[in-house]
Amino acid sequence: MLYYILKFSISALIVVLISEIAKRHSGFAALIASLPLTSLMAIIWMHFDGAESFEIAALSSQVFWLVLPSLMFFLMLSLLLKHGLVFWLSLGMAVIATIVCYLALLPLLRRMGVLI
Q1: How many domains does the chain have?
Q2: Residue 41 lies in a domain
Q3: Where does residue 112 rank: exposed (0-12), middle (13-18), buried (19+ CB within 10 A)?
Q4: 45 inside domain
Q5: What's the average model confidence in pLDDT over 46-75?
Q6: Helix axes 26-34 and 2-24, enclosed angle (nearest 10)
Q7: What is the C-alpha to C-alpha distance for residues 41 and 60, in angstroms, rounded to an integer?
């Protein structure tokens, strides 16, 4: 149980840290947020949990492919907010655009032999 509390605490600390840094230095916070911290933590936790190398490699490969459509979210949110749309509408539209990109990419990956 202590192990799960540790995992949760470290993960939450990173999110809180990024949001606090963003209040003062948005560029530095963006740099930290752009790092694959979630993936890195998941890979490290998998290693500590005894996952096999092929399982960690599979996660790493799958994350690579699924990062591509997630980039649409940041592009869309930025553009919509810059064009004056309100936050919640911009956020919703960016999420929908990202979902559409995921749905378009998944069948393409399957045809390429990439298992997700």
Answers
A1: 1
A2: no
A3: exposed
A4: no
A5: 94
A6: 140
A7: 12
**Residue entry with tokens 């790092």:** 35
Structural domain harbouring 115: 52-116
How many Cα atoms sit within 13 Å of 12 on the Cβ side?
A: 6
Query: Would you call 22 exposed, middle or buried from its count of C-beta atoms within 10 A (0-12, 13-18, 19+)?
Result: middle
| pTM, two decimal places | 0.72
Q: Which residue has the higher pLDDT, 84 or 11?
A: 84
DSSP H or E run through 72: helix 53-82
pLDDT band per the 50, 70, 90 thresholds, residue 89: very high
User: What is the per-residue DSSP string for 76-92?
Assistant: HHHHHHHTT--HHHHHH
Share of residues in the chain with pLDDT > 90 (%): 67
At residue 15, does pLDDT exceed 90?
Answer: no
